[in-house]
Amino acid sequence: MAKVTLTIDQKTVEAEPGDPLLEVAKKAGVYIPHLCYMDDLPSYGGCRLCAVEIEGVRGLPLACTTQVTDGMVVRTDTAPVRELQRGVMETILSEHPDRCLTCHRKIHCLPNWICLRDDVVTDRCVTCAKNQWCELQQVSEFLGMEGTGRFYEEGRSWYGAREEIPLERENPFIERDYNKCILCARCVRVCDEVRGVGAISVTYKGDKARIDTPFGIPLHETNCELCGACVDVCPTASLMDKTTKWAGLPDKLVSTICPYCGTGCQLLLHVKGERIVRVSADAEGAVNKGQACVKGRYGLDFVHHPERLTTPLIRDNGAFREASWDEALDLVASRLGDYRGEEFAAIASSKCTNEDCYILQKFARVVMGSNNVDHCARL
Amino acid sequence: MAGLATTFGSGAMTNSIADLGQAACILAIGTNTTEAHPVIALQLKQMARRGGKLIVANPHWIELCRHATMWLRQRPGSDVALIGGMMRVIVDEGLADSNFIQERCENFDALRESLAAFSLERVSQITGLPQEQIREAARLYATSSSAAIVYAMGITQSSHGTDNVQALADLAMLTGNIGKPGSGVNPLRGHNNVQGSCDMGCLPNVFTGYQSVADGGIRERFEAAWGVSLNPKPGLTLGEIFDAAHDGTVKAIYLVGENPVITDPNAAHIEEALKRLEFLVVQDIFLSETARLAHVVLPAASFAEKEGTFTNTERRVQRVRQAISPVGNSRPDWWITVQLAMRLGAQGFSYEHPAEIMDEIARLTASYGGMAYHRLENGGLQWPCPSPNHPGTSILHREAFTRGKGHFVPVEYRGSLEQPDEEYPLILNTGRMLYHFHSSTLTRRVKGLRELHSEERVEINPQDAVSLGIADGDLVKVTSRRGAVTVRAKVAEGTPPGSLFMTFHFPDTVTNLLTQPGRDPVSKIPELKFCAVRVAKVA
Ligand code: FES
């Protein structure tokens, strides 16, 4: 189909007709605040945050549910748009702790400092594990919520406003804290529409509404597969990786391939120093497009396991002793030197890389003169 | 994957993972996809959600059944009969794609003749399925605009695995479901790099890219590239290697990253074979049960500590990138092997970086000819990718089959090697579950995964449980002709009457003490999915 041309904030943009405006703007580098839209899923229109102005259209339509048409003229940064977005944000934040979002000192504060501005020190930015990588915080900063409306100075909206909801942390991997939930429903949609599982849904109504499992049973007792897709899409600290939530920001992200099954999911390893502190699914993955399973996401701790072999071992009188590489390699080479051709066999691993495998079969064939080389693909 | 190679000329997944989501119909047989390949299962669910027809053929109730249009609960080991029956319906009702058969295939008459033995009465008797269900499944598959077949170990780990695969390939060709989007025959490989290790020539009869070691011309090319004269005699397969070690003809083994003492059928035999070796060197990241038997153990770096590539089940070569330094004094596997080669005086083993190894692979392997690290940065490439500008191949056999014409192989139903009898009345099936992997060398070292599932359970149908006086959680003893294991019972509706199910993830309960070493005559894959056992409560 022919492409359409539209303008977003004076930029001329080409797009496929019918694409969601929010997506088109994002690709053109124009950020429209949003908290419920997810790439590659049908628009939901739940958070009402993505309002824009479109010439010839009445009111302030939502960018996620608007499909682009030819000649559309869009403005995202006008006073009425921002005013509406701040109003929406204020409503969203009325259900969420807000010190982490609106305190003007938050970038100066460090963990365990005593907060001079606030008597409720248990609910500050530095006591939230998502501090500095929280989507809600980012949107709030973008809209300049700090010091606006009811967040002015010591005015506060949240403390004591709601009964506390107990945490659910009975399974080993995912922690749920619905006190921080803004009901964007992304987790519900990803679990149902992408994973086809549907372990959670929006339950109750009105101000009692919240996300939960059937009958509120613990997550791992439902049909949940603990894939962590909900954690990846949560814009707040409601859904967190239980064991790594406090690891903070990584030094670097390394994109690599999962070592488990043959699907070939691309994972992002969050690395701090010499440790993998968290794993997430890579949205750029050719096969998995941002999805993973419980093993890839939560099953890579073996890398740092204390039982990892860290030095060559040589059997001496029935027991192993540690040896240097030189000693071990010399020994193996001299022992293998006694066998040639059919007396020797190499067994390769389908967990190793192509390069490892290639070298091993070359070794068997070239050095040992043997075609006795196989691996466990037959199993 | 011998079956596919005979029929098409290539044993890999014909289509792509993303492509499965586009199919109008999918037949998922012998795969518990949501547990063993959860992310591929997303495509199957997506397809069903969009209104596609999902046919699940599995003796066990699996999660995928929730999304299925039809669930065929054939008897364990009766897959060939089921597929033969479906083909018979397709031929009889004129649903075959005669243009495709005429233009692209050969040996159709032989197939048609063989189908004479698959009357629905007989098929229904063997499979235990009502005739109407078989008919309906055949129609669904044959009349959809595109239909894909997805299978895994349930099809291959059988003494007639090759027959199973060939029958599936026949079914696809019969309906023209090859070489177009949303179709094909798609084996799901179990390990991250099974496809790659096969592609790389870690097989006794072929060099890289399935080039036969017995072919003089091919051998000459490798001899020229490697600067040595090469052994023309195909080597021993895995099972044969252990047999040879047992009787002393193989004296030294260099074993990398495997744990056959746990994962191989007839575990006791393997252990004995390894103990008889004059020299065993094991290279791994943990001191596995197998490594404990070694004379020398070499510590390998894990996937997170090295550069390289893996090839996934859809033939996609993707980059593995180093995130941290090798733990302790461990080293990448390729580096260790290279050091040994140099100490043994070999030439042509001086590599600075795995990228150079890939360049050598590309020079010697047509299907990898266009692979190079700089081209694999964004999402990798699917082989065949023969030249530096080739975009890779997402669907095989588009114009013609790798071997020219698709070759129909007549189907023949043979029962499983070991049939249940009075003494061993039940069938034991083995498989995987979501939270663990293979011998669980890796997963049992992950605290959370261990918490979720820490011990083996044998699953038994409520009907059998009642008649044997077994309750959920009871300690029971499962006995086969080869050994016995004691394990807790789990009463589960999903397991068909007359069958038991166990995983093989737990070294404390070596399920493979029970399974039998009978192998498929062609692929040499052991029959892990079917053996006769009895079960009794431990007093
Ligand atoms: S992103 Fe548009 S309404 Fe939430």
Topology:
The complex is a heterodimer of chains A (379) and B (539).
Chain A (H helix, E strand, L loop, with lengths): L3 E5 L2 E5 L5 H7 L25 E2 L18 E3 L3 H15 L5 H4 L32 H8 L31 E3 L9 H9 L6 E3 L6 E3 L16 H5 L5 E3 L10 E6 L8 E7 L2 E7 L12 H5 L14 E4 L2 E4 L2 H12 L7 E4 L6 H14 L5 E2 L5
Parallel strand pairs in A: 1-4, 14-15
Antiparallel strand pairs in A: 1-2, 3-4, 5-8, 6-7, 9-10, 10-11, 12-13
Chain B lengths: L1 H7 L8 H4 L4 E5 L3 H4 L1 H12 L3 E5 L12 E3 L6 H14 L5 H7 E2 L1 H7 L5 H8 L3 H13 L3 E5 L1 H4 L4 H14 L9 E4 L6 H6 L16 H11 L11 H9 L5 E5 L3 H4 L3 H9 L3 E6 L11 E4 L8 E4 L4 E5 L12 H11 L10 H11 L16 E2 L23 E2 L18 E6 L15 H6 L4 E4 L1 H7 L6 E6 L3 E8 L7 E5 L27 E7 L2
Parallel strand pairs in B: 1-2, 1-5, 2-3, 4-13, 5-6, 7-8, 8-9, 14-18, 15-17
Antiparallel strand pairs in B: 10-11, 11-12, 14-19, 15-18, 16-17, 16-19
Helix pairs in contact in B: 1-11, 5-8, 5-9, 5-11, 14-16
Bound molecules: FE2/S2 (inorganic) cluster (FES).
Give the H and E element order of chain A.
EEHEEHHHEHEEHEEEEHEEHEHE
- The gyration radius over C-alpha positions of chain B equals 24 Å
Q: Which descriptor suits the 3D outline of chain A? A: elongated
Strand content of chain A: 15-25%
